[in-house]
Amino acid sequence: MISVAKVQPGNSWRYYVRGVAFGDGRRPAAASLTDAHEQAGLPPGVWMGLGLAALGLTAGSVVTERQAELLFGEGRHPDADRMERKRVDDGAAPETARRETVLGQPIGEIEQRGQTPLLAFDFVLSLIVLWALGDDHTRQVIERAHERAIATVLRWLENEVAETRWSSGRERAKAPALVVAAFRHFDNRDGFPLLHTHCLIANRAQRPDGSWYALDTRRLLQHVVAAGTLYTLTMTTEVCEELGLATVPREVTPGLRPVMEIAGVDQELIDWSSTRRQRIEDALEGITRKYVAKHGRLPGERGRHGLGWWAAQNTRPEKKAPKRLQQLRAWWRASAILRFGQQHQQPGNGPAPGARR
């Protein structure tokens, strides 16, 4: 499954830097992001993308809170503080030194035109159930497949989709090098299993001449569905090959193409782990009815994604205190057994819990 949201100045980037980076949880006020991650047992965010080389960053290195604030909050180089100090020490004026750390057009200039700057896209790729209730081997296979599927999607976006734009969109060029901060989470806001990774794709890419420009956001959004399909196909193919499982098509929304799921999935078990999804779908139904009443037609594919985002925002519960994965897995297994019986605690014992997109 894939969903997309926009990261913009103001409270939006703070939500990502202080909330998403901490497992969608409420971080202790006095704790640094690194300390909070360690205390909660959460993996730190890591850098991804071929665009890292131009910034002097290394793939897989940890995303610090200040780096995220600079890039996704101010549109500046993730190491702008160090660069700025060095330029001032070399004799540059403070304003000049600061301007040299800005990637592309400064946020202030965009806001002066009455426009809202777009600093990044949050691509969220996720799967459920089989990873949560399987044994250690099953969980490790799925996590590896999840990681490789994300890498495959990002590489595809770089090679086939991403473009920079300038001159009010009249000029475009390929952008085969994205800058991405990836944060992995284990559960949804209800505490139910949802292995997912937030991939914050910076809305800046470097051209061959070294200048930085915004991405062609319309083109990127047009390929969201294809990106989700590629993720699901890549992930489920590897999982099925490794664990000896199979996939089957299932119609989720009448009239739309079916989605692929792991065969043998008990629908009740999927529903058990999808409380958040059900609330979103219920809210989406009401929002869609209002859309049809206003426009006289159903929304298109892109419109459905937009309405889905609003439904998710309108049903978002309060932040929680993150728990370690070991605690979560014990609670998930106990909850599933209490509701469905012993046969549901591991794949292969009765109906096999599966992944869906």
How would you describe this protein?
The chain is α+β, with helices and mostly antiparallel strands and 357 residues long. It has helices at 11-19, 33-40, 52-55, 65-74, 80-89, 94-99, 107-112, 130-133, 136-161, 217-222, 224-243, 267-272, 275-295, 301-314, 325-340; strands at 2-7, 46-48, 120-127, 163-166, 171-174, 180-187, 193-202, 205-206, 212-213, 247-250, 259-262. A five-stranded antiparallel sheet has the order 1-3-7-6-2. A two-stranded antiparallel sheet has the order 4-5. It has a two-stranded antiparallel sheet with strand order 8-9. A hairpin with a 5-residue loop joins β8 and β9 (212-213). α1 packs antiparallel against α4 and α9 runs antiparallel to α11. The longest helix is centred in the middle third of the chain and has 26 residues, at 136-161. The radius of gyration is 21 Å and the shape is globular. The model is unreliable at 347-357 (pLDDT under 50).
Helix content: 40-55%
How many strands, what sense, and barrel or not for the largest sheet?
5 strands, antiparallel
Count of runs of 4 or more consecutive helical residues:
15
Characterize the quaternary organization of these chains: single chain
End-to-end separation in angstroms reads 4 Å
The total of beta strands comes to 11
Low-confidence stretches: 347-357
- Judged by helices, strands and strand pairing, the structural class is alpha+beta
Rounded to the nearest angstrom, the radius of gyration is 21 Å
How would you write the strand order of the largest sheet? 1-3-7-6-2
What is the typical, i.e. mean, pLDDT? Answer: 80
N-to-C order of helices and strands: EHHEHHHHHEHHEEEEEEHHEEHHHH
What share of the residues does DSSP label as strand, in percent? Answer: 15-25%
Approximate shape: globular
